[in-house]
Amino acid sequence: MFHRYIKLGIAAIFLALAVWQFSESNIGNGIFLLLLMGITILFYFKNEFILLAFLQLRKQNFEGAQKWLNKIKNPETALVQKQNGYYNYLMGIMTSQTNLNASEKYMKKAVELGLNMDQDMAMAKLQLAGIAMTKRRKLEAQKLLGEAQKLDKQGMLKDQVKMMKEQMKRL
């Protein structure tokens, strides 16, 4: 993984080479270099290891996703803010199976940094509500559950929210 500023430097080099190829009348080479520049800029905004971790999660391969996330060293400096939010979101999902305190820390950091999609933010808040409920913090859990319900515009988490509300009534 390259640092984010190195990725921008590589993109600038590709741009300079593309301009040079266009000036030499090598149009095909110039277009190819522009495509490479576009891929480099894409990986500036979307970290390749986070994308690979998401792919592993879709396959339900938690060990593989953890392996890809562990390859990111110093996420605070190597990633832009939204990428750092998704890094913490994924780490929170990974640690939710074993360590609720660490999972809560990661999820709070992800919510603080922000996530691109409302659905991901709703899932993070739902996770936090579940953790708060297990720690007997009913008011915080209700607040987070309400926020998650507002963010879930497509109704994908409707059943989970309903189930959590029923569990809260038992507390």
Total helical elements? 10
Which regions are unreliable across 5 or more consecutive residues at pLDDT < 50?
none
Output the structural class.
mainly alpha
Question: What is the average per-residue confidence, as pLDDT, rounded to a whole number?
Answer: 88
Largest sheet: none
Q: Approximately how much helix is present in the residues?
A: over 70%
How many strand segments? Answer: 0
Report the β-strand fraction as a percent range.
under 5%
Q: In angstroms, what is the radius of gyration?
A: 21 Å
Please report the distance between the alpha carbons of the first and last residues: 47 Å
Shape type: elongated
In N-to-C order, the SSE pattern is: HHHHHHHHHH
Please describe what this structure looks like:
80% of the residues lie in helices and 0% in strands. It has 10 helices and no strands. Helix 4 packs across helix 6 and helix 9 runs antiparallel to helix 10. The model has no long low-confidence stretch (mean pLDDT 88).
Which key features would you list for this structure?
single chain, 171 residues, mainly alpha, 10 helices
Helix-strand blueprint:
Blueprint: H1 4-23, H2 27-45, H3 48-58, H4 62-70, H5 75-78, H6 81-95, H7 100-113, H8 118-134, H9 138-151, H10 158-170
Helix pairs in contact: 1-2, 3-4, 4-6, 6-7, 7-8, 8-9, 9-10
Structure summarized in a few sentences:
With 171 residues, the chain is mainly alpha-helical. The chain is 80% helix and 0% strand. The protein has helices at residues 4-23, 27-45, 48-58, 62-70, 75-78, 81-95, 100-113, 118-134, 138-151, 158-170.
